[in-house]
Amino acid sequence: MNVRNITFALAAALSIAACTPKSGMDKYIDDLLSRMTLEQKIGQLNLHSAPGFISAEKVTEEDENAKLLRQGLLGGIYGSGDPELLRQCQEIALSSGAGIPLIFGMDVIHGHETVFPVPLALSTSWNPELVERMARISAKEAAATGINWVFSPMVDICRDARWGRIVEGGGEDPYLGGELAKAYIHGYQGYDDKYDTDEVLACVKHYALYGAALAGRDYNSVFLSRQEAMNGYMDPYKAAAEAGAASYMSSFNEFEGIPASMNEWLMDDVLRKAWGFGGFIVSDATAIAEEVNHGIGDLQEVSARSLQAGLDMDMNSDGYIGTLKKSLEKGRITEADIDRACRRILEAKYKLGLFEDPFRYFSKDRYAAEVYSEENRAAAREMARECQVLLKNNGILPLPASARVAVVGPLAKNAMAMTGTWALSSRRNESITLWQGISEVVDASYAEGSWLFKDAHLEENVRYGLYKAFVPGFQIPPIHPVSQEAMIAEAVAKARRSDVVIACVGEVPNLNGEGSSRVDISLPDAQQELLKALKATGKPVVMVLVTGRPLTLVWEDKAMDAILNVWSPGTEGGHAVADVLFGKANPSAKLTTTFPRSVGQLPLYYNHKNTGRPHPDTADYKKFVSCYIDEINAPLYPFGYGLSYTSFTYSDLRLSASEMPMDGSVTASVTVTNTGSCAGDEIVQLYIHDIYATSTRPVKELKGFQKVHIAAGQSVQVDFTLTAEDLSFYNHDLEWVCEPGDFEIMIGSSSRDVQGTTLRVQ
């Protein structure tokens, strides 16, 4: 489908729709707009953070919002989960001249008060039903506190682990990302636009291409062609629109020389016209003001351009409220531009039922029953079990409950490390730590073992950088009060008295997430020193890795007896990790991001293009081919990789037909056998490769996956149906096409381990 042709088709459809009778919502909003002043309309486009909430470099003063509310100059508030504060704000808004209710937003990213695994971890379940259930619970908890708009899901595709916000997304693959995006939308919003009091508006972010930031440096520029953007990155945004997403958040980056928050091609041509999105678009925090730094114009100019491009709501820049009236008076914009954006905000409030009952999202009874309940915490534990990737196991796992265990490492008793980044409204200090979970199962000793980093200044920034920057008078606790040598000595002594060591290492929350890009993605040096000392004891070492991104783990992969990547697993993380370590649950998660061997390989991703001088991934250096002198091309752990406590074999790959007409379909089948001694879940993955096309195509593209449960010694047949839609791509002219020819069809346990056959399409 051609983006431009879709635009014309949609214009015709909208022309026909304009002749149909107006709905009750349209009539209501027509009447409301006719009674609103210009200032009130602009006020609806103004979104402020709650008092004290740190958003970019802006912290709203206590009385700032109240002043604007009394004048009817705020459309919404975000950043607070305090029901009393939100109720007070709503009461002030209703008493203003316009009397229009507020919407209340919140960064509910992977849970509200009950926290689930971070989004990157959730994606490794390859289970859209799990993701939808997580979003459903999160929506219920948020709604009970008065929140009716969540800034989630983040669907940015990321191929560079240096980018800290990789933790918030679904990985590197656009197909899997699209399936997960739909699950998030349905979990938050339901399946229609009639919102119950436990359903909230989703906000898809960051639109668009934010995850392609150059060098993995947050807020950096993006350099992509439109074709690469459409094929490699845009599918999750499109899938969210098709699922009925109510709102989108523009991204900080530029694209094709135009900041995303004023990029008409992205917001109007693609999102609205080609994909049919009818909701509203809000900027990310201070993104409009930041367009000035991009060199586009002063605040008045960039505000006008953003509005005209389709950006409806200004988050914390005060660009709209401060300049749109001036731009209107000078003829730079029209009142129709303002009305269009205002209408979209009012429509969202109408659909939420706020004009009927502005307080319908406040419920002390629902809060008591549905927030941080035993049922929700049980769900968090269950989901965290399914999101742990077993990266290595020499047979030591699962551990027997009779083992003498030493639990060591700076993350063993770190409750905040369990909740991870973007857990603003959580009861993070109540999270079950790794130590708690393990010590409830087995008699264990404990030692902190090491600092986070040898560099005290770096550790200070990681632990307390946010407080230093935004909390006046904050007193930094002592850094490194005990020597590294003494801490390691204690850990080694306890390791020697144990049968096995569980080393809890990795990233604390401020080491990943927004504003946390890294040039060195290895395990921090002090923690590596601890692992080497533990290895020297001769005791088996199980490394429990807490992280929000892929790390370079070449030495650890060689030295450790087992590596269990638990990410930041959430409120019940310690219990869930213990469930896997001691065999109560069999790990089944698989990576959705490639783990490099070296940071110098980045960006690194499975669905790359070939070169004119290809070189086998695992082959040694050779002159005049595409490779490195000092490292092989292969990643350490590929996309789709993950081990189990059992083993699976694939056999009998076959197609229902060797040829397929353009309007037909073919079934690809494979037999998967559990050759191990216990039942397990296997994620079966289907990839394609368009062998010859008019534009270069990736060496592999994921086009299907199924999670199957197989008893020990049993086999199952797994079937995938393929049509021309699955084999299509955006060509150089941005036409969505399936070209006739030969396609390689591959099925396997990861992007590296596949069997293939050929399909001819004609």
Short description:
By secondary structure, this protein is α/β, with parallel strands linked by helices. Helix 8 links the parallel strand 6 and strand 7.
Give an account of the 3D structure.
This protein has 762 residues and is α/β, with parallel strands linked by helices. Helix content is 33%, strand content 18%. Helix 5 (83-94) links the parallel strand 4 (76-78) and strand 5 (103-106). Helix 2 (24-35) crosses helix 15, helix 7 packs parallel to helix 8 (174-189) and helix 12 (287-293) packs across helix 13. The chain is globular, with a radius of gyration of 26 Å.
CATH superfamily of the largest domain: Glycoside hydrolase, family 3, N-terminal domain
CATH class of the largest domain: Alpha Beta
Q: Return the CATH topology of the largest domain.
A: TIM Barrel
Gross geometry: globular
What is the structural class? alpha/beta
β-sheet strand percentage: 15-25%
Our Rg estimate from Cα atoms comes to 26 Å
Helix content: 25-40%
